[in-house]
Amino acid sequence: MDAAELKDYARQRGADLVGIASADRFASLPPEANPLSIAPECRSVIVLGRRILRGSLRGVEEGTNFGSTYGLFGFQWLEDNFLSRTTYELTLFIESHGYEGVPLFGYSPEGMPKGVPVAPDKPAPNVIVDLEFAAQAAGLGEVGLGGFFLTPEFGTRQRLAMVLTDAELEPDPVADRRLCGDCRACVDACPLGAINADDARPVGVPGHTMWVAAIDWRLCRACPNGAMVGPGRGERPDRIAAACGRACLNQLERADKCANRFEQPFRKRTPWVLDSLHRPVPPGERGYNPASAGCAKASEVGKEGG
Ligand code: SF4
Ligand code: SF4
Q1: Is the CB of 94 under 6 A from ligand 2?
Q2: Strand, coil or helix: what is 79?
Q3: Which of 58, 160, 186, 287 has the fewest C-beta atoms lying within 10 Å of its C-beta?
Q4: Is the pLDDT score of 60 beyond 80?
Q5: What is the set of domains in the chain, with CATH numbers?
């Protein structure tokens, strides 16, 4: 089994994205986020993803359906059924070749239950591997200023999982930032001011770090603009369908930075916005730059660019 065979199999089983990082790329991660804490003999970290259907965002973009479109097909079913099946089948493939495979879900650490360390030299269970670090290390993409993982195929639209293995596989080059152009559409689209680009910090693989804004997750958890918290997924809400995430997708597509292209633009109308009390905010009373909204009307008044 080599890297090409493994990737080919992953794609046959439904993966839209698959990349490989060598284990040495994780040396800078603390034990509580490091894959080697879970599998000390790990030699390769495989990161695989399935796309989020653009159409699953349509109901949220129009403000008319959140749960049965994005909430299921874009979020929970995609992670719990479709991606988990692809991940499981890839792990079976690895183990049929005599290597161990450790399948891992793409959790974030905020609010996840922690146990008691079983020995003084071990981090507390459950170790939660830094998924975005792994995905960058496996060459799949980058983290944008607004904190979204971005790929050249789908922009913001993917769900990721990992498989740790003791198989030594040809790694992909680490990804550098090339999609996010610091346009700040995500910052401008947030009615609650939760993305603070003035308090950005470098994140990612050493030598390839990217500046990412501070996010106030407390505000995001209360956001009525499409943010969602899935069961068992801790306290960091999913923001891909939120006002900030949809603004980013729209900006990347308008700048022609997503290889998965469509006949019609994602954003067709001025986006809806609710304030923290769930009241509609009329376009004239919003604090953001209208060019960032990216609707047909806004494109007349401002420049584009992701
Ligand atoms: S989820 Fe809501 S509050 Fe958080 S950054 Fe996005 S738009 Fe702002
Ligand atoms: S909206 Fe612009 S600044 Fe924000 S993450 Fe996307 S590309 Fe980067």
Answers
A1: no
A2: helix
A3: 287
A4: yes
A5: 3-165 (3.40.109), 185-300 (no CATH)
